[in-house]
Structures are given as C-alpha cells and as structure tokens.
Specification:
The complex is a heterodimer of chains A (225) and B (833).
Chain A: E1 2-13, E2 16-28, E3 33-38, H1 44-52, E4 59-64, E5 67-68, H2 74-84, E6 85-88, H3 100-110, H4 116-125, H5 141-153, E7 159-163, H6 171-188, E8 191-196, H7 199-202, E9 207-212, E10 215-216, E11 222-223
Parallel strand pairs in A: 3-8, 3-9, 6-7, 7-8
Antiparallel strand pairs in A: 1-2, 1-4, 4-5, 9-10, 9-11
Helix pairs in contact in A: 3-5, 5-6
Chain B: H1 2-14, H2 16-51, E1 59-63, E2 69-70, H3 71-79, E3 84-93, E4 99-105, H4 115-119, H5 122-129, E5 135-137, H6 142-145, E6 168-170, E7 178-182, H7 183-190, E8 195-196, E9 198-201, E10 213-216, H8 224-227, H9 229-260, H10 262-270, H11 275-320, H12 332-359, H13 371-401, H14 409-441, H15 446-497, E11 502-504, H16 511-520, E12 524-542, E13 545-558, H17 564-567, E14 572-573, H18 577-586, E15 589-592, H19 593-599, E16 606-611, E17 614-624, E18 633-637, H20 638-645, E19 649-656, H21 662-673, E20 680-682, H22 683-697, H23 699-722, H24 724-736, H25 741-783, H26 793-820, H27 823-828
Parallel strand pairs in B: 4-7, 5-6, 13-18, 15-17
Antiparallel strand pairs in B: 1-9, 1-10, 2-8, 3-4, 3-9, 11-19, 11-20, 12-13, 12-16, 12-19, 14-17, 15-18, 16-17
Classes of the chains: A alpha/beta (225), B alpha+beta (833).
Organism (chain B): Billgrantia campisalis
Pfam families (chain B): FtsX (PF02687), MacB_PCD (PF12704)
Domain ABC3 transporter permease C-terminal (chain B): 238-361, 704-823
Amino acid sequence: MLQFHQVHKAYATPQGPLPVLRGIDLRLAPGESLALMGESGSGKSTLLHLAAGLDLPDSGEVCLAGRSLSALTEPARAHLRRDTLGLVFQQFHLVPSLNVGDNLRLQARLAGRDDPAWSSELLERLGLAGLERRYPEQLSGGQQQRLAIGRALAPRPALLLADEPTGNLDEETADEVLTLLLALVRDTGSALLVVTHSPRVAAPLDRCLRLSHGRVDDAAITGAT
Amino acid sequence: MLTALATLLSHYKRHPGQLAMLLLGLWVASALWSGVQAINASARDSYARAEALFTTDLDRLERRDGEPLTREDYLRLRRAGLPVSPLLEGTLEAPDGTRLTLIGIDPLTLPGDSAFAAADSAGDLTGFLTPPWQTRLASDTLAALGVGASEASGATPRLADGQRLPPLALAPALPPDTLVMDIAAAAALLASGETLSRLVTRPGALATAPEGLRLSRAETLASPGQLTESFHLNLTAMALLALVVGLFIVQAALGLALEQRLGLLRTLRALGVSGRRLVALLVAELLLLGIIGALAGIFSGVWLARALLPDVAATLASLYGAGVGAELSLPWHYWVGGLAVTLGGLFLAGAGVLWRAARLSVLGLGQAQAWRAGFHRQLRGMTLAGMAVAALGLGLWAWLARQPPGEGLLAGFGLVAALLLASALWLPPLLAVLLAGLERLARRRPLARWALADLQLQLPRLALAMMALLIALSANLGVSSMVGGFRLTFLDWLDQRLVADLYFRPPPAQYHDIDAWLATRPEVAERLPTRRVDTTLRGIERADGSTSLALPIGLYGITPGETLRPSWPLLATRDGRDDAWDAFRAGDAFINEQLAIAHGLAPGDRLTLDAPQGQETVSVAAVYPDYGNTQGEVLFATQVLASRFDAPPGSLGLVLAEGADHRTLARELGERFDLASDSLVDQREVKRIATGIFERTFTITRALSALTLGVAALALLASLLAQARERRAQLAPLWALGVPRAQLVRVQLAQLGAAALATGALAVPLGIALALGLVAVINVAAFGWRLPLYLFPGEMGLTLATAVGVALLATALPALRLWRTPPRALLAEEAGP
C-alpha cells in the first residue's frame, strides 16, 4: 500500500540544510495498521506529509498504491490523494463554510464516491447524528475530531493517515475517539498510519515504529512485520 | 497605558497588510478630497479677488452703436453731472508669453467701495496717479514678468514688446495675471489714444441710460463665483464619493483588525486594563493612524491639485470666463479642514468598532461562534438602513418635484447620494440571498457548492469592498453616460446652431457697407446676420394668470432663412414647426428652455419687455434648447430685434454657394475693407474650439471618476490581501483532500469574478438611474435645462467587464501567492476550527 525506500528530506534554514529524514525504509501492507512514534522534531509529521504526497523527498522514493509519488505531477498527486487517502489532522482542518453533514461528505463527493447510507451510518456511529446542520465552530473539540475522522473515512479510503488524532483531546475522550477510529478502520478495511506521542494510541495497532533523529530506531520496532 | 497601546499596535507588526490597507484607505480618501478642495479653494480665492475688483458689482455703460467709448463721451457725461468713471481694458503679453489683462482706472472717480479703491491709502494714491505711476499686481503674477517676490516692489520689468511697466506695487487682492494702473499710463501702454473700454458707475446711480448709450446693471452680470457654483459642487460631490469609498477601505481594515484582536483585548482586560481605557487606547490608535494618513493624503492632494489645476483653470476660463490662477492659493483653514474631514471620516468609520469594543464583555471576548449570527444581524440591519435611506431619497424626490426649476441643487445631490447609499447597503443582503439560492442549486457539485458556501463566509469581509466597487462602478457608468449623452446632444446642437460656413464680426462703422458688398457676391448664397441686446422682462401672461417682474434678460436675433429654419431645434411649438417659424418671422418670440422652465412658460404665453419706445408685448411661438447658456434668453428675427429693440449689429454668418472658395472671399474682403485676413472664421474652426472646450470641461470629472474606480479596486485588493493568510489556511484542507492547487486558484478567481459580475450587473441599472438623476435632476437644478438621457450599451458592457477585471486583478495577487506557497506550508499555517 505504502512504501518508503531510502527517503531523505532536509529543510533549508539560514544556517544551511537541516536534515529531517535520513534514509527511511518503510512498508505498510493493505489493511495493516502502524503507529509512528518519536520526540518532537524527530521527523514524524514530515514522514506523514511525504506519505500523503503533500511534499516530496529530496532523494529516495515514496510509493503509494504502487505509484511513485515523485514521478507524478502535482495535480496527479492531488487526484491520487483524493481517490486513495483519508487524512485526519491534529488541527482538524474542517471547512468552516460547510455544515457538519457537508463537511463529512466533502471528500467522498470530491472523489465521486458519495454513499449517503454510509455517511448516515458514520454520523450515527460518530455521535454526530442530529448535528448535521451545525457548523464546525459550533461543535466541541471531541465532536470536531470525530467529524474529521468521519470525513476521512466517508470515501472508504485504502489508506488512512492520522496525525496525532487524539492530541487535542482529554484522556477519556481520546480513548473513546481512538476506539471508534479503530473500529471504523477495521470495518472499511483501510490501512492505517498514525503519528502519535501516546503509547496508549500506539498499543492497539499492528506495529509501532519509533523515529529518532530522522532514522527508524530499529530497537524500538514492535509488533508483527 | 503606553505598554497597552504598544501591545495593541503590535498586531500590525504581524499583520502589516492590514496596516497598509488602513493607511492606504485614509491616504486615498484624504488625497482625493484634499486635492479637489485645494482646487476649489484656489478657484474661490481667484473669484473673490476678481469680484473684489470692479467689474461685476458696478453698472456699466457702452455705446449703442457698438463703437468704442471715447474720452470725449466721458467728459460730456461728467459735465452733465453724471457720476461715471472711465475704465480702459486691454491685453499685454508678458516675456514668457502669458497674456496679462491690463485695467486702467481713474481712482478719483471710481466708486469707492470696490476692494481696490477701498484698500488704497492716500500716500499710495499720489504715487498711483502721478508719473512714473505704479503697476498694481498680485504676487502670483510676478513669475510671468520674471520678477522675484523679494525684488518686486519698485521693479520695472519689460513686456514682450520691449515696453517697460511702471514701478510694481503688490496688491494681493487683485486677480492673477491682472495689472491695474492709472488710466493715463494704461492708455500709453495699450496705445489706445482717446478710446475707453467702458464707463462704470455705482449700482443704481443712473435711473436710465444716457442718450446713445446702453446701461448694463450690475445684477445682470453674473459673478464667476455664481456661474461656477455648480461646477465646484460637482467636483465636491465627486471628491465626497472618493472619500466615502476610501473610508469603506478604512472600515473594512478596522473591522478585521478588531476581529483578529478580540483575544488580545480579552487578555488585556484580564490583565487589568479597564474597558474604558481600552476604548481610549483604540481611540488613540485611530488618532495616530488618522494623523499619519491624513497628512500623507493632504500633501498628495496638494500635488494632485497642482497637476489638475491648469486643466481646471483652462476649463473655467473658457466655459465661464472665470480667471483662476495656475498657482495654488491655500488658506490656513484648508489644512485644518482637510485634517478634520479625514479624522471625522475615520472616527465615523471606526465608530462601529469602538462601540463593539466598548460593549464586549471579558468572557464573551474572543468567542468566534457568534460571528455567523452577528453577520445575519448585520445583513438585516443593512436591509433596514437601506430602506431608511431609500425613504429619505423618496422624500427628497417628492420635495424636489415641488421646487421651482433651478432650485434644490444640494437636495439633488442628496437624492443621488441616497440612491447610491441605499443600493450599496442592499448589495450584501442581495448577494447573500443569491449565494444561498445558488448553493441549493449546486448540491451535486461539491466544489461549486463549497465555493458558494465559502463566498458566503467571505462576504462579511468583502461586503464593504463590494459596496465600494458598486458605488464606483455606477458612478463611473452614470458620469460617462451623462458626459456621453451631453456630448452627443452638444455636438448635435452645434451642428444645428452653426449652419453657416463662415462667421464674421464686421467693424460697426463698416457694417452696412460690408453687408451690402457681401449681398452682391456670387460666392455668398445667404447672409445670416445676428444681433444682441439686453433688456428687462417686465411681465408674463400665462394661461393661468399674469405675473409682473423685473428680470434682466438677453434678446438675441437670428435670421430665419432657408438654411437656419430646417436645422434650428425646437422643443415645443404652439401650432407646429412651420407655423412657429412663420409667426417668428412675423414678430413672435422663441424662448430658451432655461427661461421656459424657470417661469413655467409654454408656447402661446406672452411676454412684456422693455424697449426703447416703451414696452413691447410679444407672443411665445416656441421653446428651443440652449446648451451653451446659463441664463434665460428670448429669440427674435434679427430684423424685428433691430426695429423694435434697437439692437446693434452683431456677427454675420455666411452660407457659401456650391463650390465657392472662402479663401478668395476672405482675401477680397480684406483688401476692399482693410480687414485682417483672419477676420472670417471657418465654422469648422468654431466647432473644433467649442468641442475642445467641452472635452476639457469633463477632463477632471472623468479623472475623478476613474480615480474613484481605482480606489474601489484598491479596496477590494486590500480586503483580499488582508485576509489572504487566513484564506490560504482555509484552502489547505481542500488541497490536502485532493483538490489540485491550480483548481483552487481557478475557483478563487471564479468566486470573486462572479461576485463582481453580480455587483456589476447591479451597477448597470444603478448607473442608468444615476445618469437620469444627473441629467433630469442635477442639471435642471444647476442650469435650468434638462438633457436627454442616452444609453450606451458599450459603456454598460465596459462596466461589467471592468467589474470582473477589477476583481480578477485584485484576486490575482493573493491567488499567485497561493500558487507559490509550498504545499506543506499551507497546512502549517493556522486554520480556524
């Protein structure tokens, strides 16, 4: 589903290039779930952005659904993202001009895979039924996070990428959201890559990788391969 | 206090675009307003100086036979005990080519309350009256003579022809480019011998004109100030429009700055800054920004005025004969006034922000949830305010309908302003309804639906810029339709009026000989002599009753021959066009539209006019349009005017025979009667000059109208730039969800282009209504006549194209930034919820 091969990435700074990822190799099979852990600045978010085609590696190759992202044009990467991925951001990134119902179905509609029955089920299971006409700013933080998860899962993506999906939530709500996320991922058959600080989030996933100084810390790999 | 103020201002360090937008709004609003006011102030100063001279407030005597007055005429009248004073007027050329008006006076007999005579002291009088005499002039005339202000007093500069002027003495009250000296010294410089230009007397000093002379009362001579009042009002209205549009930018920037600082305000309140102090700090911030913006605006305005003043001065001189100096003359109150208007406008624009800041509670501050309900409240408020302004406009209209023509110019402008303001206030609610309707229609197109929903979200911030665009577009269309219509009407009118091929003003002494000679010439197919005389309208008999009055009025004579009759336009006749002309030839009168509207006259009514043999009562056969005139006028056949009103001969129009060469005629005429070769004026030359004057008249109107549109475009650009960062953060999720950036850019362009198109579509009917208001209300109130309304589909198309073009231009920069922002950075920028 997703493959990183010797991926390097550095950012330009006034002091010269700052290496963030240094030769990452990674493979994620369809339906598999993987937690990516690491300190702040270890390169987790950069890796997630590269996986989504939001950015390109300086060297090495990232393949999504069998296609090398570096070989694709920006519009082609956007279309691949639209058709293949679901994205859950730490900051939710909901569209403020659309109500809950329209936000949830937005990506499914963009991908031409809108399924009203599935959307209704998602709303129900996410505890958002009855709130369809509200706008994002009228929801609590937990509700907004659940809506972001619903939007990502509405088109039944092959791969769900989640960046600290419970980072902004209290412990109780975080557990509730995580349980829901895993159940829905299981039902859709999507692969899952989660970037997180929290061992509680990483624990139920198939595998866990730890990034340290831009490299995969082999000693910290857990779970089946 | 200072720390809190610095904290408040630190917002602009992180959002320099907003600061730039605020200062830009203040700058352009203040610059255009100050520029026009500088022109008005300079012109008014020139008028005041001209009026303070002695030309407009004294009765004048001239010879009935058109011959120049002589010193002998003057002495004869003085010997008869009449209190007249001689005046000699002529033109001299300065070394730099400037034409200077020289006025020779006799200060001992000149009526004493003219500003010049009153300002003179006894000591000066001796120097003025005796050799080497004195040349009185204002300091702004010195440059033309090549004399510096420091060495002016006593200098004797040379003229272009080498003659020396008597020693200079500064007299600030004199108009620009005017020299005043004793009549003896003036006669020597002008080589005028015994002739005088006219005799003047205190108003009302003579009950009747002495034998052989014609008396023009002071009140029949409109002062430049009166004549040009509507011109300056027009400029002021345009400047006010620019000021309002600029203040829209300011209000948009202030609203945005407040919205983004709600959290900061809450923090400051929580840290112990009282609500009252917070408002005081915001006032201090406004004052600081206002002073910077206003000063920049005023100095730019002075620069703008310097650039525009020569054109305006030329227009005023050619259109109204009003002399305006090419140098700015700005009184102290201009600077204070400019500052006060800009700061006043700023506080008016900022009043809403201060009100909101004063009312927000500490806990309520910073909660963004209320914005949606707040905007809906705002839309309702705009609808209601628009209705109130529209009702005010209707009230003004009803009031104007009951006013006599020529009255209510300010109310007319008020009506036009109400129309513009009501439409601008209704624009955001209309756009909101339109977008909501379209959003429902676009259910199956997710991106289109998002674009429409997103545009609704942007509406609160774009509303003011769109309102400014609507006002500027409709003002542009209205003004260009009015000017275009006026142009067509004027050119038609010129064609109808100037039917002769050549025009000629024979010297009075040779008039009859020349006329007789021309009658024998085969090149001349028809002669069209004109005459003109001033008299008093004593009475009007209408179908609904009679009115007595004493209205000074001009009588004009034309020749209703084969050439003139078919082309001379008539607006209304008693019994049809042919009968009207037959009656005219037989002695009935035509009256111009100004006179008809001002006194409710119609064909069939009767006028009683003063005539040398007593009073003449004539019937009105028709009403004609008269676009080159600001006064009422009565038209007679030239023969009738000569026999019944003793009018002196005037100009001659010559219609040439087929194939005749006017150059031969001009040469023979010159040789036979010792006339200059250019005494015959080609009709095409007259039209060219008249059209040139017309075009120049509207140069400044067009310039201001275009500048206002430019300001509106800036308003839109500034609004978009101010929220560009936030917009990019809102677009980021869509890009992350798989919408390519190119498509996002296209969507943004389409959003603004469509909103501007809708605004432009509303601007078209509004512009037509505005043009109607200008030609049917303002024009009637200012000049007493109505212009036909012409519609120009090309102008309307241009308005729509301009609206979209302005929006696309304004969107291009933020869109380009979006295009160039690294995709990763889009997500890194903070989003809303």
